[in-house]
Design a protein that fits this description.
This protein is α/β, with parallel strands linked by helices and 430 residues long. The protein folds into three domains: 122 residues, HUPs (Rossmann fold, 3-Layer(aba) Sandwich), CATH 3.40.50; 104 residues, Serine Threonine Protein Phosphatase 5, Tetratricopeptide repeat (Alpha Horseshoe); 125 residues, DNA Cyclobutane Dipyrimidine Photolyase, subunit A, domain 3 (Orthogonal Bundle). The protein has 19 helices and five strands. It has a five-stranded parallel β-sheet with strand order 3-2-1-4-5, with helices on both faces. Strand 4, helix 5 and strand 5 form a beta-alpha-beta unit. The longest helix is centred in the N-terminal third of the chain and has 20 residues. It binds flavin-adenine dinucleotide. The site of flavin-adenine dinucleotide has 28 residues, from helix 10, helix 12, helix 15 and helix 17.
Length: 430
């Protein structure tokens, strides 16, 4: 009898999962998820993400049961739990997705010290970090040449979903914990539901109904026409490779950005902590400004709308992420690490590489080839929320203000209109 262990981490799907497909070649397989205390006790256990994770695991368990197996759930140290299950079942091999974050690399190193054969498979990104390298460097520091190499690269074939999953006899599957057992605080009130089924439903619908004009509308805040698949990509409920093969050009470029940040983070594991390109920034320690930004009470409607979308949905449109991050770091002069922490507390798609890579890009300490670039929030508002609908959707105090005047509520009093109950801007933005 041959047995293997499939350790799920952030690849919570049965379709196009190369590690699962390889593990299922053994006669018996233990599909395992370990609630890792080291992660649950740290800043990454935000309630919105833990809720999404639990829903995704319930969905994965259902799929594995339909295939004749189950999801085995444990809590503690994944390395100790793998060792225990290998001892109990006689499994000689372990399969998992190759995760290159600092923590993922350490975990993989420890797993390789066990008495099982370890195979780390692709699947978290379209192109694995380190696979593409520029002449004379270990990773790409600039996006455009990376994109060219990425787009021209030969991608792996899509992995087939297993037809059956045979659990070894006598393994106790264990129960899924409740949200309150794992995280404190409440998730955002209007979150996306987790799971591969839901992710694929959204992916199929988006590809057939909305993808074709992505290039024209992806920056239009009120249209809200991007895929909103980021939480499903974060937890691997959908395959980035399947999406890249099916999506339009401009969309593939966004997926390449994701891979780009992942290869930067793999080469520079301190990306969420240290400036990638230190430029001697001196940041303001302004607690009041930071609190106003977090609460969506800066008095700059386009910024406040983004920050309130984040609290309500655990999600923010990419254009609003750019505008709010630029406002915090460039206009208020507050350290990007404060912004990153707040985003990480609330984003369901919150991811070390993508969050840190983008914050550093906006703050001018990262991979931006124009590190001096500043986004004026009013100009951004008139370009990307022309009619003001995005602001009206998220800032109820301004819901009655018509047209683009919603972006400058401080001018209403002067024009004789009754001013809404909304604060004046905390700084002069012109
Ligand atoms: C300050 C800041 C912080 C961010 N933090 C995160 C984060 O923690 N997690 C995260 O997934 N994205 C992050 N992004 C990137 C981007 O805003 C989101 O991926 C995107 O808004 C998700 O919406 P969507 O799925 O509708 O995107 P779509 O436009 O449909 O794009 C498809 C996919 O491409 C990827 N993608 C798109 N843009 C980027 C980008 N700039 N960088 C990396 N991947 C990208 C995402 O996986 C996204 O789901 C951040 C951007 C900024 C400016």
């Amino acid at each position: 009898m041959s047995a293997s262990i499939m350790l799920f981490t952030r690849d919570l799907r049965v379709r196009d999962n190369p590690a699962l497909a390889a593990a299922c070649r053994a006669e018996h397989v233990v599909p395992l998820f370990v609630f890792d205390d080291a992660i649950l006790n740290g800043p990454f256990a935000a309630p919105g993400r833990v809720r999404f994770l639990l829903e995704s695991l319930a969905d994965l368990r259902m799929s594995l049961r339909e295939l004749g197996g189950d999801l085995v759930v444990r809590r503690g140290d994944p390395v100790a739990e793998v060792a225990r299950l290998a001892g109990e079942t006689g499994a000689g091999s372990l399969f998992l997705a190759d995760e290159r974050s600092a923590y993922g690399a350490r975990r993989l190193g420890r797993l390789r010290g066990l008495d099982v054969e370890v195979s780390a498979q692709p699947g978290i990104t379209v192109v694995p970090p380190g696979e593409l390298t520029p002449a004379g460097g270990d990773h790409y520091r600039v996006f455009t040449p990376y994109w060219r190499a990425w787009d021209a690269a030969r991608w792996r074939p899509i992995a087939k979903a297993p037809r059956t999953v045979g659990l070894p006899p006598g393994v106790e599957p264990g129960t899924l914990p409740r949200l309150a057992d794992l995280a404190s605080g409440s998730p955002p009130p209007e979150p996306a539901p987790g799971g591969e089924r839901e992710g694929r439903r959204r992916m199929d619908r988006w590809l057939s109904e909305a993808a074709s004009d992505y290039d024209e509308v992806h920056d239009d805040l009120a249209a809200d026409r991007t895929s909103r698949l980021s939480p499903y990509l974060k937890f691997g409920c959908v395959s980035p490779l399947e999406l890249a093969k099916a999506g339009p050009d401009g969309f593939r470029r966004q997926l390449a950005w994701r891979d780009f940040h992942h290869q930067v983070a793999a080469a520079f594991p301190a990306l969420a902590r240290d400036d990638y390109r230190p430029r001697g920034h001196r940041w303001n320690e302004d607690e009041d400004a930071l609190a106003a930004w977090r609460d969506g009470m800066t008095g700059v409607p386009i910024v406040d709308a983004g920050m309130r979308q984040l609290r309500r949905e655990g999600f923010m449109h990419n254009r609003a992420r750019l505008i709010t991050a630029s406002f915090l770091t460039r206009d208020l002069g507050v350290d990007w690490r404060h912004g990153l922490r707040h985003f990480n507390d609330l984003l369901v798609d919150g991811d070390i590489a993508d969050n840190a890579g983008n914050w550093q890009w906006v703050a001018g300490t990262g991979n931006n080839t124009r590190p001096g670039q500043v986004m004026n929030p009013l100009r951004q508002a008139s370009r990307f929320d022309r009619g003001g609908d995005y602001v009206r959707r998220y800032v109820p105090e301004l819901a009655g203000v018509e047209g683009a005047r919603v972006h400058r509520p401080w001018t209403l009093a002067a024009s004789g209109t009754r001013a809404p109950a909304y604060p004046p801007p905390i700084i002069d933005i012109g």
